[in-house]
Each structure stands twice: as structure tokens, then as C-alpha cells.
Amino acid sequence: MDDTVLVLSGRKYARVVRSSLKERVSLLQGSPPGLTVVMVGDDPASKVYVGAKEKACKKVGFNSSVVRMPAESSEADVLKVVEELNSDSDIHGILVQLPLPDHISVDRIASAVLPEKDVDGFHPVNVGKLWRGEDGLFPCTPSGIIGLLRHHHIVMTGKNALIVGRSNIVGKPMAALLLRENCTVTVAHSRTVDLAEQCRRADILVVAAGRAEMIKKNWVKPGAVVVDVGMNRNSSGKLVGDVDYHDVSQICSAITPVPGGVGPLTIAYLLENTFKARSRQQIARPN
Questions:
Q1: Considering the domain boundaries, does residue 273 fall inside one?
Q2: What is the 3-state secondary structure (H, E, C) of 101-144?
Q3: Has 203 been annotated as catalytic?
Q4: Which of the residues 118, 120, 242, 244 is marked catalytic?
Q5: Which domain holds residue 204?
Q6: Domain tally for the chain?
Q7: Is 97 a catalytic residue?
Q8: Pick the catalytic residue: 97, 129, 203, 244?
Q9: What pTM was computed for the model?
């Protein structure tokens, strides 16, 4: 690894975000921000994520709760729970943990959460606001990436940005947020012709493809900023990203590590969204 490369530590930046939130919560009048997670089934990874969210809420002084539902719960059962949470003024943020069982529509559940409580940023109203350039609640991982780049004073205006991956959770909202930062944005995906050549043109390269260490240094423009959203196990069982970190860090100017890069930002910005949601709801419904 080149000693001059800037390591964009999401773990360190997440601590800055949480510290700021804790201070802001201490200054609040009235009830603290309240976040409820709805978990359907017992997916092992989801259990870990939900536990981490509960712990993070406690650290910054939020109220948090988890509604645990059996995997055989019907879609109507989940919608009923969401409606009850929508009506509870002490709950400012609602997150329905993914994945959901196959018989439950993610789109229907996401659309049932009130837009002002949609801390995942998945409701069609928030998606529309994102693309219209309005203020709203936006997906946590892309929002965290923008925050990380700003924190490190990475210039985005006028830069060519390429996103590898077009998911609704990362790729598409990442494109919209980079457009807001005045980047020239390209979205690449599994059917992009000559992906390597597209990558080599990027000043800012965000990779969310789900393929272990697919990006090598000969795919990267010298001096580029590389953001690795991937989380995979390689053939040795080691946790790695979509970017070959040791190879690419020899040529880029800044890079996120895996683990400790983008991952910690997701929960940090879930908390940010919950605080934001609480502030807006207090304005709309003052005590």
C-alpha cells in the first residue's frame, strides 16, 4: 500500500457522527428520538444488524425497540404493525429489517411506512424528493458515503463519478446524491460493455457490485477516490470488499477499507435520519 493514500475510515467518521448526535440529543426538550425496528423471521445476519442498531441507539440516547414477528406472519400482519407504529407519536423512525420472507412484498411494506418516519429512505415520496432535489429522508449508506467524502474534504464538484451497481438501496440513490454534489455521474452494471474502461475514466469510483475483489488497479484511474461498498468472503473465508484493496491502494489517492469503511456509516446515518425525522415531526406537531 502506498503510504500517501488517504484511508477513508468509516469507523472513525461514524464516531464523529455519533458524538455529534449525542450532544444534540442532550440539548433536546421533550422526548428523545425513538426508533422501532420491525424484524420478521430469524435471519442470522438480521439479528446481528438489529442488535447493533439497538446498541447504537442506546449510546446516543435514543429510545429504541424491536418488534419481532415470526417468519410465517402474513403481509397483513406486518402492515397492521406498521400502521400501529405510524400512529405512535413517540416513534419517530420505523425501519422494516430486510430481507423479508418471500411471501411479503418489500415494496408494499416500504410504501406503508409514513414518509416522515421512513428512516430507510425507501418510500416512493422520499425517492421522488431525492431525484427532484428536495429535502427528505434518503437511504443511509449513500448518505453516509457523501458525509464521509465531505468530512475528508474530497472535492466532488465537476468530477466524473462512476457507480458500479444499480440497486435501489445503494446504486440509484448514490447516483442522485452525487448529482447533487455536481458530479457528472455514470451508473454501470452487469450488462455494461467494457466495464474496466468505464472505471478507468472515473475520478470517483463507488463499487457496489457484490463480487469479491473484482476491481484491480489496472481498472482504476491514477489518483481516483475509491469507495468500496462490497462485503464478501473470499476463497479463504476472509472478509473483503468488491475492490482489491492492496492492489488498488497503490494507484488511488483515497480508498475505504473493508471492514471499517462504508459499513459503520449505515447505522450512523440511520441515527441521523431518525434525529432528522424527530425534528421535523416536532415542528409539524409541536408539544
A1: no
A2: CCCCCHHHHHHHCCHHHECCCCCHHHHHHHHHCCCCCCCHHHHH
A3: no
A4: 120
A5: 139-263
A6: 2
A7: yes
A8: 97
A9: 0.95
